[in-house]
Specification:
Layout (H helix, E strand, L loop, with lengths): L1 E6 L19 E2 L2 E2 H11 L4 E6 L3 H8 L8 E6 L5 H8 L7 E6 L2 E2 L4 H9 L5 E7 L11 E3 L5 E4 L11 E10 L13 H11 L3 E6 L4 E2 L3 H10 L2
Parallel strand pairs: 1-4, 1-6, 4-5, 8-12
Antiparallel strand pairs: 2-3, 6-11, 7-13, 8-11, 9-10
Helix pairs in contact: 3-5
Pfam families: NTP_transferase
Organism: Novipirellula rosea
Protein name: Nucleotidyl transferase domain-containing protein
Length: 231
């Protein structure tokens, strides 16, 4: 199994902490956040890792190297100019398997990741998005996804205002078939804003529902909350 981690963001909401440290390297319990994520993957025998880096990428590459210290194999695809989540994935194309996980580099969801890839394999979809119902436990992130009666994603609105039809929130773990790359044009591209709508229109984006809440390090308040889980 292969996991691709989006680790190139600027982390502006954590400024000035991220002025000199890339967001995935922000320390939690004395360890860079990304190392917690990689150790979780290694524990589940997911050892083929592709890190999509950008801002202050050299710090990530110097810390993890080839990944052997963690018992994994790490490859890097570095943005020299901002490409967005979709553009970064397209650039990494030569490194990608026929199907792979995509994990946001600021999100922590302690589930069995193989289940997400199995959902993809068992469906006709090109992609799968793990979704969580905030009624289980409020994550503080606004609901942005609705599912149809067959489990396909019917609507996605990033940063949506209160919309009762949006019952779920994206939980930071996705899976794709390699064919998704055919939809991503050159340049700066957002998976969420430009590729999701295409897949939704063709009923090729499926929802994998989890009852495990996710955590993220997007703001100082959320950083404190995730620290409680990783100490």
């Amino acid at each position: 199994m292969q996991a691709v981690i989006l680790a190139g963001g600027l982390g502006t909401r954590l400024w000035p902490l991220t002025k000199t440290v890339p967001k995935p390297m922000v320390p939690i319990a004395g360890t860079p956040y990304l190392e917690h994520q990689l150790r979780l993957l290694q524990q589940q025998s997911i050892t083929d890792i592709v890190l999509l880096t950008g801002y202050l990428s050299e710090q990530i590459e110097e810390h993890f190297g080839d990944g052997s210290d963690l018992g994994i194999t790490v490859h890097y695809s570095r943005e020299t100019t901002p490409l967005g989540t979709g553009g970064a994935l397209r650039q990494a194309g030569p490194l990608l398997a026929e199907s792979f996980l995509v994990i946001y580099g600021d999100s922590y969801l302690p589930i069995q990741y193989a289940d997400v890839l199995n959902t993809l394999a068992d469906s006709s979809a090109t992609g799968v998005v793990t979704v969580y119902d905030n009624q289980e436990e409020d994550t503080g992130v606004t609901n942005n996804i609705s599912l149809d009666e067959n489990g396909f994603i019917a609507k996605y609105k990033k940063d949506a205002a209160d919309d009762p039809s949006l019952r779920f929130v994206e939980a930071g773990v996705l899976a794709f078939r390699r064919s998704v790359l055919d939809l991503i044009p050159a340049g700066q591209v957002s998976l969420e804003q430009q590729i999701f709508p295409q897949l939704i229109a063709k009923r090729e984006l499926f929802g994998h529902v989890t009852r495990q809440r996710f955590y993220d390090i997007g703001t100082p308040e959320r950083l404190e909350r995730i620290a409680d889980q990783l100490t």
